[in-house]
Design goal:
alpha/beta, Alpha-Beta Plaits, six-stranded parallel β-sheet, 12 strands
C-alpha cells in the first residue's frame, strides 16, 4: 500500500490454486521471501499464506511457473465488511448478453462489441445500447431459456458469498448486465441485494432498449459508496471483484480490489489477481477459512 510504513510481519503472500498448493512450492516461495518457516499458515489444500517482514521486490508470478496465484498483501486489516461483485464472467462464467444474442442469431456481432467494451475500448453505455438493439424482437421466453441452459455459478462463488454473509458482511451483486439474470444469480449465490440494467419488453418481446441511466462503471462506484453509507463505514472495508473495464472504478475505490480472470485494463489496477484459483480463494485473501469449491 503506497505511503505506508510497515514493521514486523506486515505482509503476507497468499498462495491459492484450483488444485493443491504443494508443500514444495510453498517452501520455494517462502525461501524467496526469506520467511520464517513457522510463519506459514495453510488454510486448506488449496490456500496457504506466508507472513514475512519486508515487501518483496521480486515478481513472484514470473519467477514461478505453476498454476498458483501469488498475491502480496498488507497483513493488517484484511477482513472486510462489504463485498461488491460483478456478475458476468465473474460470478458466472458467461456474458449473458452474448448468450442471449446466440438465441437471436447475432452472437458474433454482440460478442465482438462485448469484448471491446470489457477491454475498455468502447464507451460502455454506447456498447450496451448497440448490443441490446441487436436483440430487438427476441421473445421474452428466451430469457428463461438462456438462464436455464447457459448460466451457472462459477466454482467457489456460493462459498465466498455465504462465508461473507456468515461474518455479518453486506454482500451486493452489481452488474452492467440485466436484472432478469442478477435476480436469479443473487438468489443462487446468496447475495443480499442485486442491481443491473432493466430490459424493456413489450407484448412478449424485447424492444431493443434498456431503462436509463445505464448501470456502468460510475454507477458501480456509486453503489459502493451507497453500501458504505448504509454500513456507516468507508471504502477501506470493501472488497470488490470484477473482470473488465466496467469494474475499474469500484476496483480502484475498494480497500481490496480483486481481478478475477480479468482483462489487462483491470489487472493493471487491482490489488490482487486470480488467474488460476476459484472464487473461494478470495476468502484466503481476507484471511478467512477456505473450503473446497
Amino acid at each position: 500500500m503506497p505511503g505506508q510504513v510497515l514493521h514486523g510481519d506486515d505482509y503476507v503472500a497468499v498462495l491459492t490454486s484450483s488444485g493443491i498448493v504443494e508443500d514444495g512450492f510453498v517452501e520455494a516461495v517462502a525461501g524467496q521471501l526469506s520467511a520464517d518457516p513457522s510463519k506459514v499458515l495453510r488454510h486448506s489444500p488449496f490456500a496457504v499464506e506466508i507472513a514475512f517482514e519486508a515487501p518483496s521486490k521480486l515478481n513472484l508470478r514470473d519467477r514461478f511457473d505453476a498454476p498458483v496465484d501469488i498475491n502480496i498483501l498488507a497483513a493488517q486489516n484484511r477482513r472486510k465488511s462489504i463485498l461488491i461483485a460483478d456478475m458476468d464472467s465473474t460470478m458466472i462464467p458467461v456474458e449473458c448478453i452474448d448468450e442471449l444474442a446466440d438465441f437471436a442469431g447475432v452472437k458474433p456481432q454482440v460478442a465482438a462489441i462485448t469484448e471491446a467494451a470489457m477491454r475498455g475500448e468502447l464507451d460502455f453505455e454506447q456498447a450496451i445500447d448497440a448490443r441490446v438493439a441487436l436483440l430487438k424482437d427476441l421473445p421474452e421466453t428466451a430469457l428463461q431459456e438462456c438462464y436455464d441452459q447457459r448460466v451457472a455459478l462459477n466454482p467457489g462463488a456460493r462459498s465466498l458469498v455465504q462465508t461473507m454473509n456468515a461474518t455479518d458482511a453486506r454482500t451486493a451483486l452489481v452488474s452492467g448486465g440485466f436484472t432478469f439474470f442478477t435476480e436469479r444469480v443473487a438468489q443462487a449465490a446468496g447475495f443480499h441485494s442485486h442491481q443491473a440494467n432493466v430490459l424493456h419488453i413489450s407484448k412478449g418481446r424485447l424492444t431493443g432498449t434498456v431503462q436509463k441511466p445505464v448501470i456502468g462503471q460510475q454507477a458501480k462506484a456509486k453503489a459502493l459508496e451507497a453500501l458504505c453509507a448504509e454500513r456507516n463505514t468507508d471504502a477501506s472495508q470493501v472488497i470488490a471483484i470484477g473482470d473488465g473495464a466496467n469494474d475499474l472504478a469500484m476496483i480502484r475505490a475498494a480497500g481490496l480490489g480483486v481481478a478475477y480472470r480479468a482483462k489487462p485494463a483491470l489487472r493493471a489496477e487491482a490489488d490482487a489477481i486470480l488467474d488460476h484459483s476459484d472464487l473461494s480463494a478470495v476468502l484466503a485473501l481476507l484471511g478467512e477459512p477456505v473450503q473446497a469449491a
